[in-house]
Amino acid sequence: MTGIRVLLADDHHLVRTGFRVILETEDDIAVVGEAADGRQAVDLAVRERPDVVLMDVEMPGVDGLEATRRIVAAGTGPAVLILTTFDRDDYLFAALQAGASGFLLKNGTPEALVDAVRVVARGDALLAPEITRRVIATFVRPGGTAGGRRTDSARLSELTPREHEVLVLLAGGATNAEIAATLVLGEATVKTHVSRVLAKLGVRDRTQAVVYAYEHRVVTPGR
């Protein structure tokens, strides 16, 4: 069985070693490269074609946010999972807007790290619960970092009523199982709806769909 191929990008050797030890205890995960800065991360992502890149934010030269933008723009395919000790909103929104598929703090557990790698490797997006709450809070704060756009009626009008319901639930942080329970649908049907929502909105994953929904005021907190 083909495993999940992971690239580690962090300017601290001990951190990379720790991540490698944690990940390579799993039978389905292999570390295929290590980068000490963003430029190396981009080069290795193009050459090694990993499934997931674990990306630090603050690195010398090209930082993790710019490296994420370049990897996503290159279209080589890996999902980027941002890991950082810096619990800052500006990093969070910059990472999401750069195309990251997930954002976790380094003070999480080894089990959370392994789970996150598996989640983004299968094409889902991941935000820690506390980060989701801050996304919502920031979008409704006057002058918030990522809010304020008018509704994009052209793309949104392509959604069916059911797909619109799915988008609203996605924006609230619901999982496929939770969406299925709320709408009384099978999970396979929900996955199909989610895929169609992403395609019609022109976003790459669930995280980007959440950002889109709040940027374009499809939903507001409390709804």
TrEMBL record:
<dbReference type="GO" id="GO:0003677">
    <property type="term" value="F:DNA binding"/>
</dbReference>
<keyword id="KW-0804">Transcription</keyword>
<dbReference type="InterPro" id="IPR001789">
    <property type="entry name" value="Sig_transdc_resp-reg_receiver"/>
</dbReference>
<feature type="modified residue" description="4-aspartylphosphate">
    <location>
        <position position="56"/>
    </location>
</feature>
<dbReference type="InterPro" id="IPR016032">
    <property type="entry name" value="Sig_transdc_resp-reg_C-effctor"/>
</dbReference>
<dbReference type="GO" id="GO:0000160">
    <property type="term" value="P:phosphorelay signal transduction system"/>
</dbReference>
<keyword id="KW-0805">Transcription regulation</keyword>
<feature type="domain" description="HTH luxR-type">
    <location>
        <begin position="152"/>
        <end position="217"/>
    </location>
</feature>
<keyword id="KW-0597">Phosphoprotein</keyword>
<dbReference type="InterPro" id="IPR039420">
    <property type="entry name" value="WalR-like"/>
</dbReference>
<dbReference type="Pfam" id="PF00072">
    <property type="entry name" value="Response_reg"/>
</dbReference>
<dbReference type="InterPro" id="IPR000792">
    <property type="entry name" value="Tscrpt_reg_LuxR_C"/>
</dbReference>
<feature type="domain" description="Response regulatory">
    <location>
        <begin position="5"/>
        <end position="121"/>
    </location>
</feature>
<dbReference type="InterPro" id="IPR011006">
    <property type="entry name" value="CheY-like_superfamily"/>
</dbReference>
<keyword id="KW-0238">DNA-binding</keyword>
<dbReference type="GO" id="GO:0006355">
    <property type="term" value="P:regulation of DNA-templated transcription"/>
</dbReference>
<protein>
    <submittedName>
        <fullName>DNA-binding response regulator, NarL/FixJ family, contains REC and HTH domains</fullName>
    </submittedName>
</protein>
<dbReference type="Pfam" id="PF00196">
    <property type="entry name" value="GerE"/>
</dbReference>
<dbReference type="InterPro" id="IPR058245">
    <property type="entry name" value="NreC/VraR/RcsB-like_REC"/>
</dbReference>
